[in-house]
């Protein structure tokens, strides 16, 4: 498995090219028959475009800094209070999504000075309300290069987790045999677990078009219900799934890393509804939704 070994070598070396490892991973995913997983790789390589939400590891905490005028003086580069702001407004100022390509982030991580992003002047009055006297004349968000480096490390570590697990599962097969060997493992669940963790991102779509994104947390049935209902699964089918999960042996599911017999019957019923049009979601998207959502709920790789 020369390709896998090359990716692991790049990722395990702190000076190895992360861009190179991501490019080779795209080739790997095609070779094992999982090109649908290359979306994340492409986003990391090219950046998250068109206001696409970034993964949580790409959101860094920012400090709001500004210049404050008070009677008799001026204070520069002061950390501005934000506790008085509504929660949503405070998050918009103190959370800084980083959608840039991984190569840009690697360059930013090497900077020696703080990174800043100007806040529109019309917001100055909002921050100034925290002061009894004086007013804010300018404000900006500020982060440190080390925070950007944490993003780079997160991408490297998560990708390394995936390729190491894949290597363990398919063994020392030849390059030509990788696709056949990968048929025996759930590479998609393995990928989701390594990249996104227990809070697996689930993409729901109609046909081949994704329209809803949600998250299912391991062991949290309510988050599973939310995802299924947004995909058009009705209350009766959700209730049947709850019964099926309760009747299946959780220890057997965990040991075999396979859904129990009752849940498999429920999935077959839902697949039939997708085929007949009784469930308003395409067959391909419906099957992927059920597998991803239930896999995330059980924590099955």
Account of the 3D structure:
This protein is of the alpha+beta class and about 300 residues long. It has a domain at about 200-300. Helix content is about 50%, strand content about 15%. The chain has 14 helices and eight strands. The protein has helices at about 1-10, 20-30, 40-45, 85-95, 100-110, 125-130, 145-170, 180, 185-195, 220-230, 235-245, 250-255, 260-275, 285-300; strands at about 60, 65-70, 75-80, 95, 115-120, 135-145, 200-205, 210-215. The protein has a four-stranded antiparallel β-sheet with strand order 3-2-6-5. Strands 1-4 form a two-stranded antiparallel sheet. Strands 7-8 form a two-stranded antiparallel sheet. Helix 1 packs antiparallel against helix 2, helix 2 (about 20-30) runs antiparallel to helix 3 and helix 7 runs antiparallel to helix 9 (about 185-195). The longest helix is centred in the middle third of the chain and has 26 residues, at about 145-170. It is flat and about 75 Å long.
Structural class: alpha+beta
Spatial order of the strands in the main sheet?
Answer: 3-2-6-5
Question: Per DSSP, what share of the residues sits in E-state strands of 2 or more residues?
Answer: 15-25%
Number of helices: 14
Describe the largest sheet. 4 strands, antiparallel
Low-confidence segments: 204-213
Provide the fold topology.
Layout: H1 2-12, H2 18-31, H3 38-46, E1 59-61, E2 63-70, E3 73-79, H4 87-94, E4 95-97, H5 102-109, E5 115-118, H6 124-128, E6 135-143, H7 145-170, H8 178-182, H9 187-196, E7 200-206, E8 209-216, H10 221-230, H11 235-247, H12 250-256, H13 261-276, H14 283-298
Antiparallel strand pairs: 1-4, 2-3, 2-6, 5-6, 7-8
Helix pairs in contact: 1-2, 1-7, 2-3, 5-7, 7-9, 10-14, 11-13, 13-14
């Amino acid at each position: 498995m020369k390709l896998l070994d090359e990716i692991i070598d790049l990722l395990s070396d702190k000076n190895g090219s992360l861009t190179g490892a991501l490019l080779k991973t795209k080739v790997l995913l095609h070779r094992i028959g999982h090109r649908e997983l290359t979306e994340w790789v492409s986003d990391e390589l090219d950046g998250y475009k068109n206001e696409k939400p970034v993964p949580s590891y790409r959101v860094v905490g920012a400090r709001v800094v500004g210049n404050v005028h008070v009677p008799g003086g001026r204070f520069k580069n002061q950390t501005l209070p934000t506790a008085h702001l509504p929660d949503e407004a405070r998050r918009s100022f103190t959370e800084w999504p980083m959608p840039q390509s991984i190569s840009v982030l690697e360059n930013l991580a090497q900077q020696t000075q703080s990174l800043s992003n100007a806040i529109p002047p019309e917001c100055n009055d909002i921050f100034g309300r925290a002061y009894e006297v004086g007013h804010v004349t300018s404000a900006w968000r500020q982060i440190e290069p080390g925070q950007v480096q944490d993003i780079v490390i997160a991408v490297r570590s998560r990708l390394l987790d995936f390729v190491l697990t894949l290597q363990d599962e398919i063994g020392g097969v030849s390059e030509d045999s990788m696709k056949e060997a990968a048929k025996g493992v759930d590479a998609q669940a393995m990928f989701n677990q390594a990249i996104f963790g227990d809070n697996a991102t689930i993409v729901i779509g109609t046909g081949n078009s994704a329209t809803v994104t949600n998250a299912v947390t391991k062991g949290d049935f309510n988050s599973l219900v939310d995802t299924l209902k947004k995909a058009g699964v009705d209350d009766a089918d959700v209730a049947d799934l709850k019964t099926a999960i309760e009747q299946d042996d959780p220890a057997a599911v965990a040991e075999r890393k396979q859904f129990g017999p009752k849940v498999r019957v429920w999935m077959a019923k839902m697949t039939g509804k997708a085929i007949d049009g009784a469930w308003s979601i395409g067959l391909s998207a419906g099957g992927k939704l059920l597998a991803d959502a239930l896999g995330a709920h059980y924590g099955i790789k």
